[in-house]
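haha ok so turns out i had the wrong file open the whole time. this is the CORRECT one, sorry everyone. sequence first:
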Amino acid sequence: MMSMNRRHFLKMLGVCGVLPQIGLASAAGGEVRSALIAAAWRGPNPGDTYFGGVLAADWQKKKLEIRHAVPLPTRPHGLLPEADGSLLVTGVRPGAWLMRIDAQGAVSRQISLEDDASTARLNGHAITSLSGDVIYTTETDFKSGRGRIGVRDRVSLKKIDEWDTYGMEPHQLLLDADGHLMIANGGIPRTPTDKKFDLQRMDSSLVRLDGANGKLLRKWTVDDSRLSLRHLAWSHSAAGRAYLGVAMQAEHDDPARRAAAPILAVLDGDELLMPTRASDGAGYAGDIAAAYNGGFALSSNQVGLAQLWHPGAPDKLVPIVELQEAYALTEWAGPNPGGGVLVGTGLGLVRWHPTAKAVFLPWPKPMALDNHWTLISEA
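then structure:
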């Protein structure tokens, strides 16, 4: 492991100021020994084959292993662990395939959107309905340029319905407590080959759609049309208050404005706020995950940084990990009171927690993790 001073491996300065009520207790008692993580990666060089599968982290042995891996047709994006142990992997924008990998690491289902009559293609994320019988996918209809939600049979993955997202370029989606869809419309006009154009027409928004019929229930926007709302995470306070964090990416023509742009919006009740103007120096939050007691961790791979936001100090972003290509995030409960995150970086996995010792696990072989990963289970 590199030295902490030389690489600025973990930044704890200021964390106690954000989380004064919890101190820095050790992880005595219910120690978590291992974790299974859904991930996607390629070899270390551009053009190497992409794989989707499961990584196993052994915290006691300080070792990370590949439990199973399946080669993918093209670059993946979102990863959705399913109730039966399967993993649904979604092709990146404009995605033309969906693949289900079973719990043993075998491909159990794969579909190609090029076989569909629809002119829509995947935008990289999927979620299972509250009832469990359908899967929703974010898509763009490249004939009209409008955002779509693909409603798909959970078993076959075939599209059975298609809903408007009342916006452009929907990216990530989550369910709310009632099973309705929360969708981040990124709002960036793109060509079928994923080239951005006409950014003056950006139309980004957060919408809530009825999970039963796709009816528009609510729509929110921020006051800067060049901020693209992209990734989402739910976080809850100890009292049960729900916050929806929205990771944003700036698309300003002026590099100075882009670098200074805020990277976080928070839906608190029915109000969409930008609680802090603090940024990362790049205006690009690549991922977001729930953190302690209503907080969020945000990654900025362009500057090798993961930061913490907490509602107890809403004007701050506190650095927690500084390491090249800090990107994929997933929450990690760990010891009480929970609230940690696992960060995928260029060199390996970083485990950060407000009350437990930080851990670094190098990749099991030369590999470049993709944008996202998801905790499946821990023991």
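The chain has a mean pLDDT of 90.
again sry for the mixup
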